[in-house]
Amino acid sequence: MVLLSVALALSGSLALFPGPSTTTTSVVVGAEVYNTFDGEGFPACNAVSHVYRPSTVDEMVELVKNASSQGIPVRASGNAHMWYDTMCSDDPETIIIKTDAVNRISDLQLNDGVGSVMIEAGATFPQVAQWLHERGAALGYTLVNWNITIAGAIAMGAHRSSLREDSQVSSAALAMDIINGQGELVHIEKDDSDTWLAATTSLGLLGVIARVKFAVLADYKVFSNQTTLSEDEVLDGDIFGMISPYVTANFWWWPGLKKFHLRTYGVVDIDSPGNAFQSTFSVTPFEGNTALTLLNSGQNLSAPNFISEGVFFGLWSAPNFHDKLTDFPLLTWPVTGFSYDVLIGGLYPNQLPEWDYDLHGKTLELAVPVTQGSALLKRVRELIDLAAADGKPVTSTYRSGINIKFGKPFDSFLGQTTERTTDGADWSQGALMFDFPSFVPTTGDHHRYNEEWCFPVRPHWTKNTRKVFQESLKNLDQDSLTRFAQVRKEFDPNGIFSSVVGEIIGVMN
């Protein structure tokens, strides 16, 4: 039986609550719904009273202090890289502190190729990467999508994909300044204490991560390569052996075609030629409008979804890279460039992300031990075959297929790759994360054809519905939850940083 574990890593008014009079904090009054990065119709919080956009750490401190004195719930948000309405509590008095303008980067220390940098709450990965590149430094392999803040990634246990290197963003944190529930700035250093084990996947329940001291390296270049494998080569193969030799690697699964892409990355000499720049999300107007029409046609029929998968498979077989200097597409594998440009990249010039063309998705990410990875994928194949036998075949409708990622073990209470679990499974080789995006049609009931077959399971903390969290409780390690709750109460005794997730998993008591 496949173990589907949470893998524990898993209305005020402006008159009553004014923004600080001595600051430049901007205020959006009566925001009501606070949306995810997908925009209108995709709420991260169903009801909030105000959104504040401070520009300094001191302003954030004052906002929390004022809210605390009035018992007003608070949530911090960078770019709202969420998928479901679990970011806040359901209290309509809640205020949002939007951190994106608090984005200073400073104090780079680099000796013998390793060092650290200070990063404020709202700084995104590309902002930090560009700043470091200009100074001969780079982030390591603990990376996530380009539109996410580093502090937010730490709070939510975000990760890249690697079994060889630390992949969870929190693993590169060396120290943090957290604004607690009284509006006090608390400094903590990396150690083996319960405080650090809670802070490295805090879900924002300890407070606002105001600053992070983050590990960095001397700048470096990497290659990216991709090969196509048959489904049997992966399902019956040595998954750990295929992934672990590389600094980062993952699979893209195309179940309708019964094929996988294996994407691998490794370090090359800094003088190696190449200026590759990756984009997973860039879309031209023609591509966006064409994809929307095709994907919407698959809302009530399976055939268009198989056509979509075939088209996307062909497009994804070629490098999703341009030359950064010329913006010309790179047509053959492997590609080479500076670390962040190849590992993550961003948007191509004069192109927009897919969600700006109404190409939105639901998603799911569940973690299992690598030792059970083959069993999980075979079980998913069985479910796909059963759906087909019932006359309702299922395939992938995401432009890069189903993303199969991996995580080296990392010690924290709520992280996806923690070994702190009583489920009896062997997590010592790390975790396999099954990440299945699904297109959301813009017409009808907004449900894709036969998508529900795979959704009553567990994603990570930003990729999960309330129902799935509730169903996952039996898989959560109670000792980790109890110890996390004790730290949370020390930081926030009145629970002003509460969220739906925190309430469901029982750590707000």
Automatic annotation (TrEMBL):
<dbReference type="GO" id="GO:0016020">
    <property type="term" value="C:membrane"/>
</dbReference>
<feature type="domain" description="FAD-binding PCMH-type">
    <location>
        <begin position="44"/>
        <end position="219"/>
    </location>
</feature>
<keyword id="KW-0732">Signal</keyword>
<dbReference type="InterPro" id="IPR016166">
    <property type="entry name" value="FAD-bd_PCMH"/>
</dbReference>
<dbReference type="GO" id="GO:0003885">
    <property type="term" value="F:D-arabinono-1,4-lactone oxidase activity"/>
</dbReference>
<feature type="signal peptide">
    <location>
        <begin position="1"/>
        <end position="15"/>
    </location>
</feature>
<dbReference type="InterPro" id="IPR006094">
    <property type="entry name" value="Oxid_FAD_bind_N"/>
</dbReference>
<dbReference type="InterPro" id="IPR016167">
    <property type="entry name" value="FAD-bd_PCMH_sub1"/>
</dbReference>
<dbReference type="Pfam" id="PF04030">
    <property type="entry name" value="ALO"/>
</dbReference>
<dbReference type="InterPro" id="IPR016169">
    <property type="entry name" value="FAD-bd_PCMH_sub2"/>
</dbReference>
<comment type="pathway">
    <text>Cofactor biosynthesis; D-erythroascorbate biosynthesis; dehydro-D-arabinono-1,4-lactone from D-arabinose: step 2/2.</text>
</comment>
<dbReference type="InterPro" id="IPR036318">
    <property type="entry name" value="FAD-bd_PCMH-like_sf"/>
</dbReference>
<dbReference type="InterPro" id="IPR007173">
    <property type="entry name" value="ALO_C"/>
</dbReference>
<dbReference type="GO" id="GO:0071949">
    <property type="term" value="F:FAD binding"/>
</dbReference>
<protein>
    <recommendedName>
        <fullName>D-arabinono-1,4-lactone oxidase</fullName>
        <ecNumber>1.1.3.37</ecNumber>
    </recommendedName>
</protein>
<keyword id="KW-0560">Oxidoreductase</keyword>
<dbReference type="InterPro" id="IPR010031">
    <property type="entry name" value="FAD_lactone_oxidase-like"/>
</dbReference>
<dbReference type="Pfam" id="PF01565">
    <property type="entry name" value="FAD_binding_4"/>
</dbReference>
